[in-house]
Amino acid sequence: MIPEQYWHILRRWFWLIAIFGIAGAAISINGLPYVLGSASAYDASATVSVAHYVSPTRIVEGTAATEDAIVAEYTTAIAAYATTPQFTDAVQKELRAQHINMPVSAIENGLVVKATPQLFRIEIHGSASSAKTTDALVTAAANAMISYAAEEEKRVVWNLVVNLDQQHDQLVASLQDLSKKRTDLLTKAISNAGAAFSSRPEVERLAGNTALLSTSGGLLNEMRDLLTGVSKVLGDPALVAADVELTTAQQELANVTARAGHVRASHQYGDPLTLLNPTQTVETQAESIATRDLAILGGVAGLVAGWAAANMFDKLRAKRQAEATEPLTAAGPAGDKRLRKLIERSAEVERRARALASNAAIEHDPTPAGAE
Asked: Which of these, 34, 94, 225, 336, has the minimum number of CB atoms within 10 Å of its CB?
């Protein structure tokens, strides 16, 4: 139940409260958007594409179905880097180089990175209150991601080249041993076969090409067939086994040499990540407060202010009425002193009036002195 005092204020000052409420709603609708500033915001986007991936064993370019899956996983891994503190720090350094200072929380809240593994793409979206900051934020994020992938590839390529060089040296040494082994087996087989076998054309031909057999180079098919035939004639299959082993090692060496050259030339492909779509910034309109909400907000604030004003005016009115009707004695010691002065002054005036009246009567009396 509302106390009588409040009902009294409401009945007497309802017009003042209503004026404040209407004024508050009008001010809120017309002035609050300007006070809060513009609701404009900016959104920027960029697309980064995965060009290739250098694994610890080979370069994967995403051409075959199996390699597509590897590159897709690599795309997801690069996008996951955007959630690390190292990525945020790299973006912050890029922004500082452009004389833009943004706290870590603003960078984390303003950036959204999404990977599309099937297309080998990474979408980067950013938002901020100014076009320059938004553009710089997304561009810095793209550059940080591209730089991270390039640095990682350098480390992988260096390790891969070192491993391939070691394999190359091992295979070269192995080929030398296998070539010598094949030559020794052939020479021993021919010497043990006797004159009958040594005079055969194929044997003589092989014996005349021992220099070729002792090298690490591959044999022509004709020579290899001849070696196989001689091994059958001589009854020594170890010659064929040694040649097969040597041929396998030669193929491995050619493979390693080609891979090493391919890896060394990997930088001709460019960075593993490329900027497919440069940063594009557009202005967006943030959702503003509805007019009805502004009116309600301003009206409530105006009613509260009007109620406070009504209370103040009511107290002032009551105080003035009390001062007008309050007797002097109610003023306390100061009022008593004033009253006493007034009484004394009245008594003094009365005495003076009586004295004047007495003097006037004596002056106008017609009876002479001593006539009695």
From this structure: 34
Residues with Cβ within 8 Å of 74's Cβ and at least 6 positions away in sequence, in order, are: 50, 53, 60
Question: Comparing C-alpha atoms, which of 338, 168, 352, 199 is closest to residue 264?
Answer: 168
Rounded to 5°, the CA angle 293-296-298 comes to 105
Burial of 363 (0-12, 13-18, 19+ CB in 10 A): exposed
**In angstroms, rounded to a whole number, what is the distance separating the alpha carbons of residues 263 and 260?**
5
Using CA atoms, how far apart are residues 31 and 35, in angstroms rounded to an integer? 6
- Rounded to whole angstroms, how far apart are CA atoms 98 and 75? 28
Q: What is the pLDDT of residue 240?
A: 67
Given the structure tokens 């980067």, which residue do they identify? 124
Rounded CA gap, 75 and 69, in Å? 10
Residue 344 confidence class, pLDDT cut points 50, 70, 90: confident
Nearest to 148 by CA among 72, 71, 73, 94: 94
C-alpha–C-alpha distance, residues 261 and 65, integer Å: 24
Interatomic CA distance for residues 250 and 217, integer angstroms? 8
User: Is the overall model pTM greater than 0.85, yes or no?
Assistant: no
Contact yes or no for 273/150 (Cβ under 8 A): yes
Q: Are 22 and 303 in contact (CB under 8 A)?
A: no
CB atoms < 10 A from the CB of 284, how many? 12
Structure tokens at 35: 């006070």
Confidence of residue 83 (pLDDT cuts 50, 70, 90): very high
Please tell me the distance from the alpha carbon of residue 242 to that of residue 268, in angstroms, as a whole number: 40
Position 328 pLDDT exceeds 50: no
Single out the residue of 190, 192, 194 nearest to residue 202, CA to CA.
190
Q: What is the pLDDT of residue 56?
A: 63
- For 136, the token pair is 């710089």
334 class by beta-carbon count within 10 Å (0-12 exposed, 13-18 middle, 19+ buried): exposed
Mean pLDDT value of segment 167-192: 76
